[in-house]
Amino acid sequence: MMQNKLLKIIEEAERGRIMTVEEMTDLFATADGKVVQELFQAADRVRHSAVGDEIHLRALVEFSNYCRNNCCYCGIRLDNRQVERYRMEPDEVVEALASAHRMDIGTAVLQSGDDLWYDTDKIIRIIRGIKESYGMAVTLSIGERSYEDYQAFKAAGADRFLIRHETSDPELYAELHPGMTLEHRLLCLRRLKELGYQTGSGNMVGLPGQTCLSLARDVELIRDMGLEMAGIGPFIPAEGTPLADAECGTLNLVLREVAMLRLSSPLLMIPATTAVATIDPQGRQQALRCGANILMPNFTPMRYRESYRLYPGKACINESSEQCIGCMSRMISSIGRTVGRGPGHSLMQNDECGLRNDYRTNCKQDG
Ligand code: SAH
């Protein structure tokens, strides 16, 4: 009875009907293995017809682990004194991407803690350096900045910006992020879209206190904001944080969200994340087979990798980027897919900044 109802929802979603939050909540909650397998297969078919078989590679450089925030789950939070802090000079960041360019990778992803040592000029220097030396697409993942900064980075040539909403539950968000609000996070996302960035959000799965309803709302938020990219990973408890003893998120729930995102937003760019590989050696392959179409090989110089520890046991930190690319290429062929060529831009049309009405207002107000 319930099984037939859920299978029908999946079938209709595959043909383009928008799922309700209630339906998605049921798909997160079901214990029916046949339903879950069908969800994954439907998402894989939609991925194939909407974005094809190419898997795009994004070269990740984690350039600073200084952070002014105190996110309760994060290993590099301000109050974690066990972390050895590092910052890469702007030239060093550009240099770290030379090998990625040689390997024909079309996109650089620059990630850091929320570190204001990199003022507007320093970030611009990095963006311009990458553009001038390699002509790669540039994605920033550097957290919350002013509207003026986002504007200046865009003008300097940045193409994309990732800033996860982390959880769509405003109370849970406030508990996990001292001094921060979900509202401000969403304001950042709206501003980035308005400025013409290809914008990415995402959330963790399995946070303490998170419900199936709130996961359904995560999918809804990413869909309704018209976002171009979404990164989903399990919450992994980290030493030196208030959540060190909490339970880890599960692969199965992550895969369900990836699949529902693919059904809800067929053109979305979805990475098979490092966090997924960290909790299961087959995690990335599985994510790629139920909706994901992006991989992010690590180009952070070896000597810094250990220190960019958002969570323990991070996959692949001892592999050189060459080894990493080799391994990913084999993974891609083994599942019958191909390595993407060129910058791998989003295929979504960024008209009217792609926002539905309720998200479109007040982009420039409130700090
Ligand atoms: N300062 C930037 C980058 C944050 S780190 C920003 O705020 O956008 C990138 C992502 O790692 C975070 O958005 C979060 O979703 C994830 N992350 C951090 N700690 C984690 C943990 N313990 N388990 C799983 N994911 C984590």
CATH architecture, by name, is Alpha-Beta Barrel
Mean pLDDT: 95
How much helicity do the residues have? 40-55%
Order of helices and strands: HHHEHHEHEHEHHEHEHHHEHHEH
The ligands bound in this entry are: S-adenosyl-L-homocysteine
The CATH superfamily is identified as: Aldolase class I
Tell me the total number of β-strands.
8
Radius of gyration: 19 Å
Helical/strand content category: alpha/beta
- Stretches where pLDDT is under 50 for at least 5 consecutive residues are 351-361
End-to-end CA span: 51 Å
The largest sheet is:
8 strands, parallel
Number of helices: 16
Determine the strand fraction and express it as a percent band. Answer: 5-15%
Description:
This protein has 367 residues and is of the alpha/beta class. It has one domain: Aldolase class I (TIM Barrel). Helices cover 43% and strands 12% of the residues. It is built from 16 helices and 8 strands. Strands 1, 2, 3, 4, 5, 6, 7 and 8 form an 8-stranded parallel beta sheet that branches. It is globular, with a radius of gyration of 19 Å. The termini are far apart. The model is unreliable at 351-361 (pLDDT under 50). The structure holds S-adenosyl-L-homocysteine. S-adenosyl-L-homocysteine (SAH) is lined by residues 73-74, 111, 113-114, 141-143, 163-164, 166, 204, 233, 235-236, 238, 275, 310-311.
